[in-house]
Amino acid sequence: MEDEDDYDYKMKIIFTGDMGVGKTKIIQRYTRKMYYEKDMPATIGVEFHWKRVYLKDEDVKIKALIWDTSGSERYRAVTVGHYRDSLGAVLVFDITDANTFESLDFWLKDLKRSVRKECVMALLPNKIDLISGNSEKRQVSEEQIVEFAKKNGLLYLGECSAKDDINVTETLDQLVFEIKEKQKFNLHMINSISNERVTLQAENKFMCGSSDSCFGC
C-alpha cells in the first residue's frame, strides 16, 4: 500500500476541455499506467486522482493532485469552482475533431479568470492513434497547434495518445517540473524542503488513483 504522505511538496493540477476528448483516459494512463478500451461514463462534476513524481536531479518527491473536470455545460459552475488554487492546468482536445480545438479559447478564458496568474498551462492534443495510417482523420494541423500554444504561452511537447501511451507521461512530468521551477522563489522562502510542504488542500470525495513516476531517471 502506497504511503500518500511520502512527498516533499504537493501541487494541484486541473484538466479541462470538451467532453469526449479523453481527459479521464489520459489521467488514468498517467496515474495508473492503465487504459480502458471501452468508452467510459462521462465525468460528473469533478474527480480526483494523484501521482507522486520523483525529480531525480533534485532528489524531490512531488505529489501531483490531479483534478479531472467535466466538459459538460451542465456541470460548468461546479468545475470552474475547482480551478482555484491550481498551480498547473492541462487543456486537452481531440485532433480528429476541430470543434474541440476551437473550444480551447473558451476553456482558456475560463481558466484565466479563475486560476492564479503563476499557473503553468500545458496543451495536450489527444488521439494521434486515430490518424495512424489514416491522415485524413486529422482535423487540426500541427501548425495550428504550435501557433495556438505560442500565442497563449502554453507548454507544448507534442501530440499524445492515451491509448498507445505516447507523450502522456513526458508532458505531464515536464509540467510538474515547470511548476516546481516557477515556484522556486516561494519554495526558497520555506526553511526546509523536508520539514515544510506547499499544501493545496484537496477534497477527498472523489475517485482516487495513483502511481509513481521518475523525472530525469
Automatic annotation (TrEMBL):
Domain of life, source organism: Eukaryota
PANTHER family recorded: DRAB11-RELATED
Protein's name in the database: Uncharacterized protein
Family: Belongs to the small GTPase superfamily. Rab family.
A Pfam family that the UniProt record links to this protein: Ras
Gene Ontology molecular functions: GTP binding; GTPase activity
